Amino acid sequence: MLAYILRRLLLMIPTILGIMAVSFAIVQFVPGGPVERAIAQLQGTDQSSTAGFGGGGGQIGSGAAQSGGDISSRYRGSQGLDPKFIKELEKQYGFDKPVLERFWILVRDYSTFNFGKSYYRDVPVLELIKEKLPVSISLGMWMTFISYAISIPLGVSKAVRDGSRFDTVTSALVIFGYAIPSFLFAVLLVVLFCGGSFWQIFPLRGLTSDNFADLSWPQKIFDYLWHITLPVTSLVLGAFATSTLLTKNSFLDEIKKSYVQTARMKGLTERRVLYGHVFRNAMLIVIAGFPGAFIGAFFTGSLLIEQVFSLDGLGYLSYDSLIQRDYPVVLANLYIFALIGLVVNLISDLTYTWIDPRIDFETREV
Q: What is the dihedral sign for C-alpha 48, 50, 51, 53?
């Protein structure tokens, strides 16, 4: 097992390099890079942001920065500006170096988690991510835990009672929940419980109250749960549906196999058959979908929910940085997302062996 883990860890290196290379290459051809944004703001023609163009430099560039030719013709709207000033802008944002040199600087710095500074916030990117991380952790962890805590027992119960009234009613509820977008359900919850038109029960914004630091520990726990209830409920509604149906179908497939009939003929109780034999095999396919569900919930799945409930997390940070062309933040988020995704995938594979010791990755080629 140790050799398998080592091989997987080594394979993460070219995978991360490939993701960084593709992301960096895409950035090179995206129009409206930071230099063009700065020029547009100077000319008073930028309508996409109110942020200033000052800030720390980065080591990544945009498609506008090309070698050769008149520098004033490289950027839209730069006619009439002093070429020296444009060169200063390029140097400020790190676009004065060749593309390959910028990429290898990026690789070198990211290997030590040195993500540079945000173009428009003038703070280190790592500090920005640390600031937004608690919100994303709260949403992702609670959503994943609650959705699996609901879907696995519910899926097993539906499989055991397949075709019954319980199965029909719960299937209708699951499909209904899956059909409603999370953000639409979030808006409904806001209207109902946040003082929109009905009751003022839950807070509308933030992860904690303004006086959170002054509260006692029990009050802090209650305040945190009070704020997180509606956002997590919105996310769980759509998340548990897929895993519930997946669990049910997986259990149905296993229940029909011959080894289950053999176990029953030996006189084992239904509970022993279900949880001692079927559960171990049926849960493999459910675990296979865990990394994608976790990463989606942790980073990208909460963007609209963050917007509705005014939660400033990594989802909104990534979206806002992409709109702002804040490339250090965008690429740092992609790097972290990819790295965590690869690690979670490895953990998922190792969990297979814990559930079913018959699985041996040592004898398989990666």
A: positive
Q: Which tens digits make up the pLDDT trace of 12-27?
A: 999 999 999 998 888 7
Structure tokens at 292: 């994608």
Instruction: List the one residue out of 113, 141, 114, 133 whose CA is nearest residue 293.
Output: 141
Q: What is the pTM of this model?
A: 0.71
Which residues touch 208 (CB under 8 Å, ≥6 apart)?
220, 223, 224, 227
Instruction: Give the three-state DSSP class for 73.
Output: helix
DSSP 204: S
Q: Which residues contact 17 (CB under 8 A, 6 or more apart)?
A: 107
Report the C-alpha gap between 98 and 102 in whole angstroms: 6
Q: How far apart are CA 197 and CA 191, in angstroms?
A: 6
Structure tokens at 227: 């704020």
In angstroms, the CA 278 to CA 251 distance is 7
Residue carrying the six token digits 């390099």: 17
pLDDT digits (tens, 9 = 90+) for 304-361: 788 888 888 887 888 888 888 888 888 998 898 888 888 887 877 777 777 666 666 6
